[in-house]
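debug: dumping io for the single-chain case to check the tokenizer round-trip. Nothing else runs in this session.
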Amino acid sequence: MSQLFPPKILVQALTSVFCALPIMTFAASPLSMGDGSVCTAPQRPKNFVKPVQHSGESNPGNDVTRVIADKVNGQSQTRVRATGSVIIERNDVTLNSDWADYDQHTDIVKAGDHFTLDNGQGRISGQRVTYDMKQSTGVGDAGRFEMEKDNRRLQGVGGEVQMGGKNRYRLDSAKFNTCNPGDDSWYIRSSSIDLDYDKNVGVARNATLLFGGVPLFYTPWIDFPLNGNRKSGFLAPTIKGGSDGIELMTPYYLNLGPNYDATIRPHLISSRGIQLGGDFRYLQPTYSGEINAEWVPSDQKSDHKNRAKIDFSHNQYFAKGLTGGIDYHQVSDDDYQRDFWKGDNGSENLNRQAWLNYHRDLWGGTFDGSLMVQKYQTLASENGYKDQPYSRMPKLSATWNRYYGNHYSFNVYAEATRFEERKIGHKDAELKFPDGTRLVINPTFNADYSTQWGYIRPKLSFHATHYDMDKNNNFSQQRSLDRAVPIVSIDSGLTFERLWQSKKTTKGFIQTLEPRLFYTYIPRRNQDNFPLFDTAENSFTYDQLFRENRYSGHDRINAANFLTTALQTRLYDKINGQERLAAGIGQRFYFRNDNVRLDEFTPRNKERKRSDIVAFGRASLSHNISAESNWHYNQDLKTSESYNFGIRYTPQAGKTISMRYKYGRYENLYDDVYGKIRSIDFGMQWPLSRNYYLVARENYDFKHSVALNQTIGIQYQSPCNCWSAGLVGTRYTDGYQKRKTAVLFQLQLRDLTSVGNGPLGQLSTQIPGYSNRYEVKH
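debug: decoded output
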């Protein structure tokens, strides 16, 4: 039998109840989160709540209630009693029960002995439910619930649900998780959960996280957002053990507003004491930024007291084309970075910078201007050595660029910079360099004649520089210096192609052969008395072969009359155009010796007819295997200056093995101490079984017989991907002949949170090709 009723809000209220219940779930002691089965097929999940039965009839209309049952008794517009396979449908809500009473005068519905409610987004079932449609209040008992929305699944059981008005609910004796049906490997149990959808806040009291039936974490109170949006409350704790003892961090998140928030991070380090930290972020239409700060009032492991760190970044939009920003970093002492952040024995320069940038179209081209001030806080290494760069107080620069047709372009770069406070050495033996001002103007004309089979690109520029130096007793430099240098270069190349293809298949490869010539002429200029404000010598690489100047910055311009010759080949897949192989080799031939040196401590270049040889190669040997290599051959010493070779095998996510060997004849080891390096870096992530994964890394220096980094760990992923755990131990260098150790643990609960220091994030930077466990499909 069936009967239709006038428009009411009964089902609307029941729908509100059902929408709330998926977020947290019911728990009564007779009910279980699992059914005793083992999850072996996560791709075919069973239902936690039995699906409802529908009438199969057409939609009676909006806000019209249909009742279908084996027997329906009652009086229209007064009271209805339905028994036996009851189906109540209204809008997108369907209610199944053994019986149901509907009082239309009071708008109260009662249903039992067993009921199931489906609102199109999820299902709830229980023994009995009473609901007041006008007041949006009611009580349901002994319920089960499940919902999957926006790729987030929630399910649970509970003793009673109280509906205290529209979008407000309380669940007593509840427990829930985010696993697949039948999986109760972990869940959260609480005495009560309050849900307020108007405020988007859920509060659980006397909450306990149980893992494998064992309580792991208890809190008397915890709140959380109901829709996954930002919400004030405690975040997952961080747990770590190692050289600094046991560490525990319990961050608290503050959702201060739609466009700004903060995090407070109390951090207990057993060997040092308390560290208080915090972050503040803000985002507005015209500006954004972030402030991070840390404070250690009394470090038990250091002579430094009242230690602190602050990082501040800000970006600002002022008007069309005009932007600016600030980047500021400060620590209380030289050892702070080594003790609390990174194991680095070398000196550190912390940036402090503010800038304004301007962009506009001008005279048929584009104009970019910049005003910047920049200083550094330079931290001494463990032996007290500092290398403090020049500050720019300020730097004003501008670039104008314009294209003429398809082949020509002209640009002008201009700069005026005041350099101050350059110092190197130890506290008692510090060398101060003179301050000064540098003016630069560099107009450049480019031409580009390119076809499918080759190109020629001539370039002509003029580099003019003027210095005004302050007096300094340590140096006998001239007070005023000038330099004007024309620079001419021509870059040219050809591309030859041939097809590699079998007659029996359409598959094949296209191989290119690309000879390249690069000529540069720069006349000699004596620059021995010129300062070094921001200049260093570039590494000699394959790319450096095609640059006019071997120095960065503007303080040194090498003399040049050389021709670079290079040969490169590539191999492309004919079908999809994917590059499968690329290799190149090159060398310079000198027609005149370069007599420009970096400083007085650098020996002048020997008379040479040709440069060192550099080469590179990279290959996709298959869809799973890739390799790359670089080589620098010292032509004078007839030996390799440096080379490296790396290969990686990644057949699928969660399976990767990589190895890289590096050799350097003369490398910076630490604190400007140079020597030979021969090291191998091995990384691996590999399944031991269906759910267990081994992760490992070994970075070993053969020359000094020392392990630079050793990491080993094991990860477990539950069969239904409901949770994963990782235990990782690492030992790494912390300065010259010093080591630190750390043991990290992480328990990650799907769609909820993680407990631990997050070794997964650290492993992704250490092991090439590493995959997060949730990216791995069984």
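debug: round-trip ok. DSSP finds three helices and 48 strands in the chain.
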